[in-house]
Each structure stands twice: as C-alpha cells, then as structure tokens.
Specification:
single chain, mainly beta, Porin, twelve-stranded antiparallel sheet, three-stranded mixed sheet, 15 strands, 4% helix, globular
Length: 232
C-alpha cells in the first residue's frame, strides 16, 4: 500500500511472506509463521530521490527436541539517486523529452544495517545468515549484517552507458560457528552497455570480488560477463 503525503513525498507499507535463512548446524530446522512487516518513506525530486526503509521480522527455529525459539529481526536502509550534472546545469532530466547523456548520468548509493536480515541482502541469501544456532548450546541468535553500494552511471549518449560500482558486506556470527563461516566481502564492477532499441540492452562487465571467512581466511576472484537483457 502506497500513500502520497504530498506531491513529492510517499509512504508505503506492506506485509511480506516470511522466510528464515538459518544455519541450524543439524539441530533442527527453520520455521516461520509471522509475516515480515516492511515500510518506507520516499522523497521524489526533480534531480533524484531519497528513501528511508525498515523491516521487522520474527526469526524462528524449531529444534529437534524442545520448544520453538524466536528472536527479533530488524533492518534499516537508506538509499538515494541524484543526477549531478543535471543539477549543476539546472536541467530536469525527468521532465525533459530527450535528455543528453550528461543529464541522464546519475549517482546511486545505498546502505543497509540490521540483525536477522541476511535474506534481504542479495549477497547473503542462501548462506544461513538470518540467524545461527550455537552448536554447543542449541540457542538461536540473530546475526548482524550490513551492506553498502555506490555506483556511478555515465551515459555517453542515449544508446551507450558505462557503470562503475563498488560495494561491501559485513556480517556478525553466533558463538562456536566453524571457521569457514562467511564474514564479509567486497566487490568492484565495471560495465559497458549498448541499448540499440527500447527495452533491449547488451553489455560486457568486469567483476572483482574478495571474500573473508570468520577465521580470517581470504580469497579473491576475477570474472568477465557478457550480458543480454530484454525488459518486457
């Protein structure tokens, strides 16, 4: 549900299907019977937008023996987009029929932080980092997580654009987790895109990544991707 508070300010709220991505260490299984609650406040301006968001969750674990355990999960997010060159020259890229490459160019930033929000950070989904069960005591703990990304999207003209992105993720851990538990990562991506016709785009991307585990071990990787995308 989205409610306009003014011409440029919007408030939205919703109830999402729950899912708990938990490391159970073989002591039971995840459980979910309380929906996630999410809300955000958004300001839409002529040169970009700013959005503040939050999510509140019930993280649940059903042990092989004993009663279901619950812990509270929460997350906060701040994000924004700005067209710096359009702002500098006083042009409005949103209302202009055919903005120039510089007017289209934009900066995108986002920061997320919370506990029990691993499934809400793309890089952490599937790692069991909403919560972890202490293998020694069988106690469920929600896990701290934070992630950030900063991108600059530069349009050369209406058909060619380049993107530069740097991002990072940091997580906490429950007691007695194994040393190879995911602890954090950093990413750098550089891509070049060509849009020959509306809704169709192709691109090539270089991606550098570095992962760190709980025991301090690190690994690095390089990758080149070729991309084809059509938006229906």
């Amino acid at each position: 549900m989205t409610i306009p508070l003014s011409d440029k300010v919007y408030w939205a709220t919703g109830i999402d299907q729950p899912f708990s991505d938990i490391t159970t260490n073989g002591l039971g299984r995840n459980a979910e019977d309380v929906p996630d609650f999410a809300t955000h406040l958004r300001y839409e301006g002529d040169f970009g937008h700013v959005q503040l968001s939050s999510v509140f969750r019930s993280i649940e674990f059903r042990p092989t023996v004993g009663a279901t355990q619950r812990d509270f999960g929460w997350g906060l997010s701040a994000s924004g987009v700005v067209h710096p060159w359009a702002l500098l020259i006083g042009s409005n890229p949103v209302r202009k029929d055919n903005p120039t490459g510089l007017e289209r160019s934009r900066i995108l930033v986002q920061y997320n932080v919370g506990k029990g929000i691993g499934r809400n950070i793309d890089d952490l989904l599937g790692f069991g980092l909403d919560g972890q069960v202490d293998p020694a005591t069988g106690q469920l703990h929600t896990v701290y997580a934070s992630g950030w990304t900063a991108s600059y999207e530069h349009w050369l003209n209406e058909k060619w654009l380049a993107n530069f992105t740097y991002s990072g993720v940091l997580t906490g851990s429950a007691p007695n987790q194994p040393g190879d538990t995911y602890d954090g990562a950093k990413y750098l991506a550089v891509s070049l895109w060509y849009i020959p016709v509306r809704n169709l785009s192709t691109g090539i991307e270089y991606l550098y990544g570095e992962r760190r585990d709980l025991d301090g071990e690190r690994a690095k990787a390089n990758r080149v991707n070729a991309l084809f995308q059509y938006n229906f």
